[in-house]
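Summary for the funding panel

The consortium committed to producing paired sequence-structure records for every protein in the target list. Below we show the first two records in order, beginning with the earlier of the two.
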Amino acid sequence: MAPPGWRPGRILLGIWATAVLAAAIFPLDGGPVPASGQIHSAVSALAFPAITAASPTLTHTFTGTPRWPAAGRVSRWIARLVLVSFLLAITTQHLGWFGVTQRIFLAAVLAWLITATNQLRQPR
């Protein structure tokens, strides 16, 4: 039986992956599709909170599973960094340095994904 947070965490991760793919397909600057920027913004507004919620949800699942204790300990700290950087990004959304805080958030997300993946790949 899967741990309690496994299913919601995977759903949130799937939402994030789908939304990021859509954001990559529809550029912010418009491109050939007139509403491309609006689509990009809408799916980004879905992707950011989804991965921010997925990281602590799955981290809690890792922590509660005897098979993955190392993944839980390491990813717990990085999941906190994801949350803090997300809050920083949304509070600076209308300021001139939103691009920088957004990149910090994306770096934290990438660090969490790499850490969780590396821990889960190790044989138990």
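The next record, for a separate protein in the list, is shown here:
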Amino acid sequence: MGGAALFTAVTGLQSFQKKLDVIASNIANVNTTGYRSSRVLFEDLFSQTIKGGAAPDGNFAGSNPQQVGLGVRIGSIDVDFGQGAITATGVTSDLAIQGQGFFILNDGASNSYTRDGSFAVNRSGFLIDPSNGLFVQGYQADLNGVIDTDAEVTNLSIPVGGRSIVQTTSLTELRGNLTSEGVVADALAVPPVLPTTVTRTLRVYDSQGTGRDVVMTFTKIDQVLDTGDPMMGTYNAWDMQADFGTNEVTFDTTATIIFNDDGSFRSVGTRVPGAMVGDPDDYTEIVLPDFTVTIDNTLFPGPSVPSTPFEFDIDFTQVTELSGDSELTNPSQDGFGRGVLQEFSIGDNGQIVGIFTNGLTQVLGQVALADFANVNGLAKLGSNQFRETPSSGFAEIGVANSGSRGSINGGVLESSNVDLGTEFSNMIITQRAFQANARTINAADTLLQETVNLIR
């Protein structure tokens, strides 16, 4: 008498003790970055059947089975993978996932997975988890900033201060005015009249990031005939010449810039002597898509020579021919001298963009994320890490914002998803249940004592 109740209540004490342990762990990790709270689910033990159920038979309506439960046990301890709050830190290498997915860490032999994105760049330039020294996994970009997301993930390198970059000039721009009051050459005048010339220097950069100066000289000429115009119109014109050092570069024949009669830019091309009888001052304008300066390799002093021929285009569309002074400026060009990686940022797709001292930016790599068919099947390893199990399935690795994977936020961390209000409520319920089971044991003990006293 009372023996079964005694052991049944003991199962309750054991189970609620485990639940209290889980609650305590949740509360202890309320400030643990990326922590996932757990919950305990109970299930009853085997029940002792005193009488089985009987089916209806004639005037007998049937009866239900009579069973006595033998206690409770832990059915499962599940992890809550709900989103934690995002908190700003201002640290560039701190990352948080908004949505599903895990960061991938590697120890050189195997991967583990975490929601804790408190990363840092070590002295070798690798992105790591500084608490355990594991390498963050992702896709490394090549020297041109191209990422192959079909490749295997690898350790991410962000060599701040240890990587340089240049950009060859492919396009430069001239803006301003060539005066409409310029004069053309007249060798027969006394004294001879020299043509109006305007000179400007363009600074461009070759493939090694070396600044090169190209001198542009504009010389006023007579009007030219544009054969590309159905009306065979004539236009105001200036010849152009580009010089690199002491050498003339550009085309084999004279380059010309022509303007409409309102002073606006019309086109750039190469002029050749026309065939118009009796009018030797007219020329045929062959309009080109752009004006390209070409510097041959023979014009570069050694011993180190950049990629040759060095070619770049000049945009003249903002040049006018109006009255007043000639004022030409070179406001922009797309080349850059050597710059060193100074800092980086990480976008919501996990791309790591390097920022260099010369103002250039380039993609350095991309943080990878993993997701699982059954995240509740993951096993906790401690240190905010999980490992895959046969229950979780294999890691589905890819980039943020693809598949089931969420986005990545830089400069923030994900807080624990522990809800203290819920945990305190569960603690009170667990305490009461524990006390009730203890009272059951006390009551069963009293019954056993009374039974023993019957023989005295």
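Regarding this second record: Confidence is low (pLDDT under 50) at residues 275-281. The two ends are 17 Å apart (CA to CA).
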